Amino acid sequence: MNNNTVVGTLGMVNLRDTSTVGWQWTGNQYWRDPQAKVWTFRDTNYALADWKVATGLGATDQATLGQPGQPRVFVRANQYEPGRAIATVFNWPHQGTVPVDLSGVLKIGDRFEVHNVQDLWGTPVTTGTYGGGAVILPMNGVTPPLPIGGSPAAPIKTGPDLDVFLVTRAP
User: Fold this and answer.
1) 13: which strand partners?
2) Which helix (H) or strand (E) segment is 48 a member of?
3) How far apart are CA 158 and CA 138, in angstroms?
4) Is the pLDDT of residue 151 over 80?
5) Residue 127 β-bridge partners
6) 99 pLDDT exceeds 90?
7) Which of 17, 21, 29 is closest to 57 using CA atoms?
8) What DSSP assignment string belongs to 69-99?
């Protein structure tokens, strides 16, 4: 596990393997109190520094109290269908909108639509003609549809904390 960001309020890592020989575990950023005993190895809870000693892993890992101050955006273009991508936004500061760079997905002049994946057949959250750079996406979430066949619990609305969007070129 290398160069990851882990944000949480409960346990951060729980390793149960008897050996970590051959493991690669470096450069991770945890957003959690480093003194909290929430890093677990072989059923024992440790603060981060002690967990590193016990496991021999994570020498360059860091922990910071609180949550990230800026949203984190990931855009994954569909390699088989140009003009199509999934954009995932982790919005820890609860911003109302987040800029998402779609330059790796769309060409200037492309017409496009963006749908929240919790409502793929509903109204797009934004449409337009791509002018380059970032497109502003709303982070208010949508009410997800009820599952077909019934469910004991309705699905949760993930925004503004997390929203996932489908980006497509419009016809």
Assistant:
1) 39
2) helix 48-55
3) 13
4) no
5) 113
6) yes
7) 21
8) SS-EEEEEE-TTSTTEEEEEEE-TT--SEEE
The tokens describing 42, both together, are 């072989």
CATH code of domain 72-169: 2.60.40
Q: Where in the chain is the domain with CATH 2.60.40?
A: 72-169
pTM over 0.85: no
What integer is the mean pLDDT of 43-58?
95
Mean pLDDT of 103-109: 97
**For all residues of the chain together, what is the average pLDDT?**
94
Q: Is 57 helix (H, G, I), strand (E, B) or coil?
A: coil
Phi-psi region of 94 (alpha: psi -120 to 50; beta: other; left: phi over 0): left
Helix (H) or strand (E) holding 52: helix 48-55
Contact assessment for residue 168 and residue 113, using Cβ atoms and an 8 Å cutoff: yes
